[in-house]
Every structure is written in structure tokens, then in C-alpha cells.
């Protein structure tokens, strides 16, 4: 969990940072300038890095100014002298700025969150761009103002500043962000006692190894170091590295410990200890970061599992966990009510047993698509198996479950009874498929049948389309009114129905325009049917309520479906034939060209 950026006091904070920087820098210069050049140990920049990483950028100029002045004073008094003080201050500031800017740029959360990404970015920024650049500048200054060569100065700078940054920056960052005080406030007394005992044990082992052991026993430190990283996390790992630096560094510089057994000067022994300390850091901190990540993942999974169980066990929908190969691993209690099968009887069986055999291919396809595209949700409707009680349609919503590597381990599916929805849908379709005035097919329902018949004709069937328009219908409306006109339309369809065969369909396309689909008929037979219908309509008047009876005739255009590319072409051809019939005096049939 990341901490918010600090807003330090604009007056006291820079002063405190400057004094602390001067103190740390002065001690390092007094104790570790073994060859008269650059200090072998340097932790002052770690303080500035932690300040910059944890505070708002508007505070940066004050912190940089205070630490820059502190660097100038310490270098002038205890380092390479006044002439080298300003260049070395600029180089120290540059190192800290490079690390802070890169960490702010590439870490979405701060270093104290203990994530692997944060730690790797920090290590990369410190070890490569920051100290390669700063070390080169510092070595140039040192080679001018001291007798130490450029190469030796660069190595002294690089090892000392890398060590100081790695060891001190994490713990200082945690302190500045309040993570230590937060841990103290939230941790139980028993856990605090465990941490204290572990750190005390580590300190005792370190003291024994560096001050009392007759043999080089550095490997003894590995076990308590790993234990602390495992039990406490990043905070404990950082604290143990600081303890190791204090104990081991003090022993090495005073001629004690396994590294002091090496026949070399104190500078070489210090650098060798720094290498050991860096390796210890690279063992403990990444391990703690990995464990922190796994701990957070486990906590997230626990919370997610609790939510999932609460939803699954109290939902009216059936929830299934299905393996990659389609085997049910979990079924929610609602399975007994919704699909008529106890959950215990479903577990261990193929999920397709709840699906009607006709729809299993589609449901299996949705399962495979969910596994192939883990981020997508697959929805499929199916008819349930015969043992399902009361449901005739169900909807399944499926999504893949992933492991830590992002690979699918199975799917979670919810099944909902869609019977009522389907019934309403069918009722609406039935209403929409019928013209409410005449009882003929509605326009969209008739065109749907026409499309299906076009496909049948493409496979070798025969059919014709008859387009009909009632002659002079406008004059009927104008003379008798629209009420009589509606009666004429309704009676017109009733007059036509007895002349249609079982597979024929009549639809109202709009106004007084109708269409008849004559299935299983060629153009000659369809023409005979049309003439019969024309006689049936015109041979007797249509009676209307409250008005005199009306004589009705119609004009028609006939087109054969065979050889026609699509619906639009058919309707256009029939319409042109109908137009010719009207121009020929009406009450007649014309064939499409």
C-alpha cells in the first residue's frame, strides 16, 4: 500500500535535512577517506534520495539547497577542500536527482510499497545512470585535487555510493513516509516481540561472526536474514541490512571479522565488505518484495473468494466452476432449484450434461472462446437437458479464471432461467408478425418468409411472388371514410384466404398493398391462382357496416423467384409488373419481364 507524498514544513524540514546530511557526510569523510581521496563509505545521499522520493516536488528546491550547502561545508572542512566543495556538491545533488526523477517516472507507487517493480527500478536508477554519471564527474574532480587516480576514485565512489544508497534509502524512505510508525501502531504485541527477538538474534549472530568467530562464518548470516525477510517483510529486511552494515562495517574498519583476515589494506577490505553487504541486500530485499507481493495477492484472493462465495451461495442464478476440459468442479446450492439436480451430483461430471444435445456444440464453443480470450465474457442461450424442471430456455454467461501467470485454469459460469423472457419474446414476435387490422402477416414477417423461400428456391424449389394493389382504394376512403376503408381491407384478406393453398402466405406491405408468396408453383400455375383470386374478389360486393356494399378489384404483378438474386430485385420486378397492370386499365395481372 503506497503512502501519500509528504508536505514537509517549509522552514524546519530543510534545516533538519541539511543538518542530518552534514552530520552523515562528515562522519563518512572523517572515517573512510583511507587514501586521501573519495570516502569509501557514503550514506548522506541516501537521505536526500529518500527526501525527494517521499515529498512533493514543490519542496525539492528547499531540500536540494539545504543538502547542497551541507555537502559544500562537509567537503570543505573534512574532504578535498574548498575548491572541490562546490563541484562535489553539484555531483551529489545530481546523483540524488537522477534516482528520484527515474523512480517518480517509472514507479506508480513509492519504494515503501515493497513491490518487486519498485525495488528493481530503484536499483537500476541508482546503479546505472545515477552513479555512472555521478561517479565519472566525482572521479574527474578527485583526480585533479587528490593524488588518487581516476580509476581508483571512480571505483571508490561507485562502491561507496551504491552501498550507501542500497542500505539506507529503503529504511529512510519507510521512516519518512511513516510506515514504521504505522507498523508499530497496527502490529500486535506478540508480533512486535517476535520481530524484536529475530533482530536481536540476527545482531548476536553478526557480532559473533565479525568479532568472536575463529573461522570465516559469513554464511551463518544467511539463515536469520532470510527468516527476517520471510517473517517481517521489507521493513525487517531493510532493518537487518542496516544492522549488518553497522556491525560488520565497524568490525571491518577496526580490523576484526572474517574480511579482516585478508592480507590487504583497509580500503580493499572495506570495498570487499561493501560487496558482501550489497549481495546481502540483493538477497534479502528482493525476497521480501516477492513475499510482500505474494502476501498481498493471497489477501486479495481471500477477499475475492469470500465475496464470490457470498454471491454464489445466495444468488438465484446457478454458479458453476468448470475446468479447462469441461468438468464441473463446483455448483452453487441454487442448482437444485433452478436445474433440478443437487450440486453434489453435478460435481465431477461434464458441464454439457445440463444442456440439450442440440445446443451442446454452441455451449462448448462459448467455453472454448472464454479460454482463448480470457478478458472477454461469453454469453450463450441454450435449451436445458430433459431432467431440468420447469425451464425451457437458459442463458449462460462464462468468463475464464486465470492463475498468477495469466493462464486460464478454467471458467466460472452463471446460468439463468430465461423461460419467461423467451415466452414474452415469442409473444411479442407473434404480435409483431401479424397485421392487427387484416390478420395478414406484417411487413417484416412476410419479408422474413420471402428470404427463407429465396434460400429454398436456391436449393431447387419453386415459388412465385404476387404483388397486389386494391384498385381505386383512395376513392373508397374519400367517399365512405377511413372506417369503411379499414373494413374493406379486412374483408379483402378474408375473401382471398380460401383461394390460398396450405403453404402460401399473404402479407400486408403497407396501405392497400399486399403480397402473396405462392410456394411450390411455377409461373403458369401461379398465374392461374392469381386469376382465381381475382375472380373471387370481384364476383361479389364487400358489405360494410352502415354503408352500401363496395365492389373491389385488384391489380397484380407476378414474378418467379427462380433466377432472382435477392429480395430487393424480386420486389422491384414485381412492382414494375404491378405498375404495368395499373396502366393497362387495372383489374388485371401482368408478369415480370
Description of the structure:
By secondary structure, this protein is an alpha+beta fold. It folds into four domains: 1-178, Arp2/3 complex 21 kDa subunit ARPC3 (Orthogonal Bundle), CATH 1.10.1760; 187-308, no CATH class; 315-419, PAS domain (Beta-Lactamase, 2-Layer Sandwich); 434-591, Reverse transcriptase/Diguanylate cyclase domain (Alpha-Beta Plaits), CATH 3.30.70. It has helices at 12-32, 44-54, 60-78, 82-106, 116-145, 150-176, 179-186, 189-212, 222-231, 234-253, 266-314, 335-338, 343-346, 360-372, 419-433, 443-458, 473-480, 482-496, 523-538, 567-583, and strands at residues 318-323, 328-331, 378-382, 394-402, 408-417, 463-470, 505-510, 513-519, 542-544, 547-550, 554-560, 589-591. Helix 1 (12-32) packs antiparallel against helix 2, helix 2 packs across helix 6 (150-176) and helix 8 (189-212) packs parallel to helix 10 (234-253). The longest helix is centred in the middle third of the chain and has 49 residues, at 266-314. The protein is elongated and about 130 Å long. The model has no long low-confidence stretch (mean pLDDT 85).
